[in-house]
Specification:
Elements (H helix, E strand, L loop, with lengths): L1 H28 L2 H28 L13 H29 L8 H24 L6 H29 L4 H6 L3 H13 L1 H14 L7 H17 L3 E9 L2 E9 L9 H15 L7 E7 L6
Parallel strand pairs: 2-3
Antiparallel strand pairs: 1-2
Helix pairs in contact: 1-2, 1-4, 2-3, 2-5, 3-7, 3-8, 4-5, 5-7, 9-10
């Protein structure tokens, strides 16, 4: 969708700006907290450009090679993205724990505050823009981008609060004792906090790739719709299978009917299929539906 591509472009270029600023600023003032934030944003940039490409691929029509579409590319990409951010968090955790054990490193608070304010404003702007768009469209990639910008804003806010407090209370004796530990300790805490987001995405998309039933509201709704349809037409039993791949649900429905059931015409079967499809299609998640009838339970 054109709207999705525009949002991803905004996300990519904003992340590039914050990432380059964070890396250069962090190197100049020797702040690992800024470097962590900068690396996070720069990786977001690279992966946002990847998301743009993935978004275009998914929108392509089915063909001889991808006969069920290219929706599976989304969970593969998000799985890779999650691994990248988990690796960054683990590396930062180990590195800054080592710095803490060696006595820390002092970073003057005033060297950090300007960056933190700019990064927080930019991250918050992109987050609210992406988050507001979720009400108008559904996109797995946009969902992940929104979560990523929420994390970026959280990182910048933590840096601003911690170093802002250091700037306000720099004359206190307690601050003089802990000032060498603030920067590496902050990165250790942030690494532990933000790793939860990619871990959650990793788990969710791994389930999709393994074709595990989604166990969400749509699966429950599909079973409810099928049960009502079976009762309404007096069918004997049914079996529903639901898997999710990216933004598309694959739904396979098998209906058990009595061997003596009088089928008036094929179009009457299509009428039942259409009743089912139109109710499921209200979800807006592009369902792919297979709907079959059988008189033998083994085909359920």
């Amino acid at each position: 969708m054109k709207k999705e591509q525009q949002l991803l472009q905004i996300s990519s270029f904003c992340a590039l700006g914050i990432g380059l600023m964070g890396l250069s600023w962090g190197v100049v003032v020797h702040s690992n907290a800024i470097l962590f934030d900068g690396f996070y944003s720069l990786l977001s940039t690279l992966l946002s450009f990847g998301a743009l490409y993935v978004g275009r691929l998914v929108l392509q029509e089915e063909d001889r090679v991808f006969q069920f579409g290219r929706n599976q590319i989304e969970p593969i990409f998000i799985l890779f993205r999650s691994i990248v951010f988990i690796s960054l968090s683990v590396y930062s955790l180990v590195l800054n724990t080592s710095i803490l054990l060696k006595g820390g490193r002092y970073i003057p608070p005033e060297h950090v505050l300007v960056y933190a304010v700019v990064a927080l404003v930019c991250s918050s702007f992109v987050f609210f823009k992406l988050n507001s768009s979720k009400k108008q469209m559904y996109s797995v990639v946009i969902d992940v981008e929104t979560l990523q910008w929420k994390t970026n804003a959280f990182l910048s806010a933590c840096i601003l609060i911690v170093f802002g407090a250091g700037w306000l209370f720099h004359d206190l004796p307690l601050y003089c004792k802990i000032k060498y530990y603030i920067d590496p300790a902050l990165v250790v805490v942030l690494s532990l906090l933000v790793v939860g987001y990619p871990l959650k995405a990793f788990k969710k998309n791994l389930k999709e790739l393994m074709l595990i039933a989604p166990n969400d509201s749509l699966e429950k709704e599909v079973n409810r719709i099928t049960e009502e349809l079976v009762k309404h037409h007096g069918f004997e039993d049914y079996r529903v299978r639901v898997v999710r791949s990216g933004r598309k649900y694959f739904i396979d429905v098998n209906i058990l009917v009595d061997a003596a059931w009088d089928i008036k015409s094929v179009s009457s079967l299509d009428t039942i299929r259409n009743q089912f499809y139109h109710q499921v299609d209200k979800s807006g998640l592009e369902p792919w539906v297979g709907f079959s009838f059988t008189t033998q339970r083994k085909w359920l």
